[in-house]
Inverse folding.
């Protein structure tokens, strides 16, 4: 099987799935034969859960075939892990990776740097893929990609994809809605496509793998992998709890947001920094007292919602490094950042290191 | 409500339905149907019915003559299933409810029913302007609710599968909830420099821009001292800022047209913010949020009678709205032909069918529509003719 290299980069495309089906490849056999696609699938899920990406660590190790086939196997793994957080993280990581690749591809497209060796996705293919071809219109090429109204998106399509929690700028009430269409900038359109990918990946997950002879055999063959992934996930879920509040040990991203906070942080940034502080056990009053710049009128609402754990772990956990990166809030990373995937881990490590150094004294 | 009154109303509702044939919504077999019967005076709704449970709808209405009749905004795989989870939701019309009870600045105790309904119709026109101009909706059905307000059903492609959160965004837009007024002016790079511009392309920015333009047109025609006075009436605009604004806007039509507020100086921001507040106050519509965000809501069937007024739940064509007077045009013609005898327990003035009736307490003969209105509202009971 020599698949279209585009499918290797975007294995959730309908055509990619059709190619897998046409190749008549049996996942159970791949698993029992120890096919490299299975190794890649394992990495795919593990990286998704741990690092928020599904891109391989060593791309040269895998063929296009491995990449393509690893996607359906990864879906089987995620279904077997069968934890809601795993499905969410996995879908988000697939979307994030696709989003990064798309941005690269579209940028290459714009600059007419199309390389013959690397097939690039183009925007119209992607709009078509998600039934958005009729709902999105390019407005003005001449104004360039950064124009706030480079595209117009039908309001119903916009409402389906945009999440008000992304920030005040995404709220319909703050958009230039006219004649049934919402003007969006190019990078905003990419964000909407990222959401479309996330939903595509999440839909149908988890599915029932067991129940047939082949399915049972598959589940048995993958049992060790599933257990390992569950353990890794549980370990990741247990964010260290740090009772002390020592701002000078906060990660650089949080410090930068606190430095910038003067009442008009973008909503996602205000959310991120408040969530971080709430996770340390601070309430709105304590936050307002120490960082008056965060007290923008919504602080107490935000802090209350964030602190409401609904009985089963925080409903809105503090954002991970991957999320901070997506929103451009990951700034000035230092050496410690290389070793962690969550601002709270950074802080826990920094506090622990400081305690070690004091007790050594 | 006593038995004689109930029997009378149920009989007359049945008579109405013998000559009325309410138009069904699209895909009636996919809707859930509900009604409240006259029997036992209860207000319990019979719901979770499919249209097959009713049989022929016209026949059902004649036979049962219900007090209230509803259908679901949603479409289901199995609308007759007993629990919402088993119905299999397929999508729902986007529905809006304007109720005179919820109009800001209208005290239901202090104004008449007619005044309340008029205020509600103004709100309806604002809602329709938002739905048509901004949202670009075309499949819009307007209905007088038969009670205190209006319903609007939107069935354009793409609205059916919007979830509750998306519908809340529509509500917030219509009510300008969480509008970022400061964000209406944005800074744009123009040839190496930056310029502050009011957003004119759409949304609440465009609406504020329209108001700014007409404000400037008004001010332009005024003598200089009056123009200054108009401007200094706004918070944060003194004589100095007013002068800058007059120089920038009144003398430079192009700048205003393009939304360029740079030349207006610091006063321009104050002016835009004040006009934005006026725009919001004058152009939002106070729709009832839960009706729009609840994707499984039942809503009155147009063409049926409202059991709390005896008025027709009346579908209105777009060009009918301006002249529509609910207290005349929604009175069932059948109830205007004769007078009947009732015992009034809660006297007062009733405006109906183009007339004003001052009704005293005690037994008397009144036009039937007035009698039905009073009885359905629990203000009178039927007595022997």
């Amino acid at each position: 099987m020599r698949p279209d290299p585009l499918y290797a980069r975007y294995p959730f495309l309908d055509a990619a799935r059709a190619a897998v089906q046409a190749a008549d490849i049996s996942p159970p056999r791949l698993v029992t034969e120890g096919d490299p696609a299975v190794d890649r699938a394992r990495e795919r899920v593990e990286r998704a859960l741990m690092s928020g990406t599904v891109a391989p660590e060593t791309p040269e190790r895998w063929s296009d075939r491995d990449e393509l086939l690893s996607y359906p196997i990864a879906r089987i793994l995620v279904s077997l892990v069968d934890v809601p957080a795993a499905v969410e993280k996995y879908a988000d990581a697939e979307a994030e990776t696709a989003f990064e690749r798309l941005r690269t591809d579209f940028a290459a497209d714009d600059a007419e740097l199309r390389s013959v060796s690397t097939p690039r996705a183009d925007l119209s293919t992607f709009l078509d893929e998600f039934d958005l071809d009729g709902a999105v219109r390019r407005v003005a090429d001449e104004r360039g990609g950064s124009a706030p109204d480079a595209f117009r998106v039908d309001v119903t399509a916009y409402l389906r994809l945009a999440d008000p929690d992304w920030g005040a700028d995404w709220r319909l009430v703050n958009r230039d809605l006219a004649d049934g269409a919402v003007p969006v900038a190019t990078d905003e359109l990419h964000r909407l496509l990222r959401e479309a990918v996330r939903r595509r990946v999440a839909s149908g997950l988890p599915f029932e793998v067991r129940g047939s002879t082949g399915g049972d055999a598959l589940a048995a063959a993958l049992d060790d992998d599933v257990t390992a992934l569950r353990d890794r996930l549980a370990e990741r879920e247990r964010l260290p709890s740090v009772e002390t509040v020592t701002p000078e040990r906060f990660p650089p991203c949080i410090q930068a947001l606190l430095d910038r906070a003067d009442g008009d942080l973008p909503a996602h940034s205000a959310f991120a920094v408040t969530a971080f502080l709430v996770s340390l056990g601070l309430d709105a009053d304590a936050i307002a007292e120490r960082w008056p710049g965060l007290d923008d009128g919504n602080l107490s609402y935000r802090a209350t919602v964030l602190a409401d754990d609904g009985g089963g772990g925080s409903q809105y956990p503090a954002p991970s490094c991957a999320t901070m990166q997506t929103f451009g809030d990951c700034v000035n990373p230092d050496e410690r950042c290389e070793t962690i995937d969550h601002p709270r881990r950074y802080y826990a490590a920094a506090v622990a290191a400081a305690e070690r150094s004091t007790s050594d004294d | 409500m006593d038995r004689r009154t109930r029997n009378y109303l149920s009989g007359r509702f049945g008579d109405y339905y013998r000559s009325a044939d309410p138009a069904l919504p699209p895909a009636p077999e996919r809707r859930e149907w509900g009604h409240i019967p006259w029997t036992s005076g209860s207000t319990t709704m019979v719901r979770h019915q499919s249209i097959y449970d009713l049989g022929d709808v016209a026949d059902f209405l004649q036979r049962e003559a219900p007090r209230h009749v509803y259908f679901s905004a949603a479409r289901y795989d199995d609308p007759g299933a007993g629990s919402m989870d088993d119905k299999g939701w397929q999508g729902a019309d986007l529905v809006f409810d304007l109720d005179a009870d919820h109009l800001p600045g209208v005290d239901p105790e202090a104004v008449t029913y007619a005044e309340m309904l008029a205020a509600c119709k103004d709100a309806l026109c604002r809602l329709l302007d938002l739905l048509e101009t901004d949202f670009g909706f075309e499949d819009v059905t307007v209905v007088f609710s038969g009670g205190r307000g209006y319903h609007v059903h939107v069935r354009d492609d793409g609205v059916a599968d919007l979830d509750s959160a998306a519908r809340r965004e529509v509500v917030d837009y219509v009510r300008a909830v969480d509008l970022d007024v400061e964000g209406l002016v944005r800074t744009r790079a123009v040839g190496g420099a930056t310029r502050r511009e009011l957003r004119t392309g759409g949304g609440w920015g465009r609406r504020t821009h329209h108001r700014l333009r007409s404000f400037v047109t008004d001010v332009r025609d005024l003598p200089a001292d009056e123009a200054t006075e108009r401007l200094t009436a706004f918070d944060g605009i003194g004589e100095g800022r007013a002068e800058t604004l007059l120089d920038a806007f009144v003398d430079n039509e192009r700048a205003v047209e393009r939304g360029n507020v740079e030349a207006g100086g610091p006063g321009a921001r104050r002016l835009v913010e004040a006009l934005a507040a006026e725009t919001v106050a004058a152009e939002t519509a106070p729709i009832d949020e839960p009706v729009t965000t609840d994707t499984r809501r039942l809503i009155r069937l147009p063409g049926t009678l409202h059991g709390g007024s005896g008025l027709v739940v009346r579908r209105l064509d777009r060009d009918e709205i301006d002249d529509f007077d609910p207290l005349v045009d929604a009175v069932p013609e059948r109830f205007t032909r004769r007078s009947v005898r009732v015992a009034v327990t809660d006297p007062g003035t009733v405006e109906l069918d183009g007339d004003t009736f001052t009704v005293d307490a005690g037994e008397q003969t009144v036009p039937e529509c007035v009698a039905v209105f009073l009885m359905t509202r629990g203000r009178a009971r039927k007595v022997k003719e």
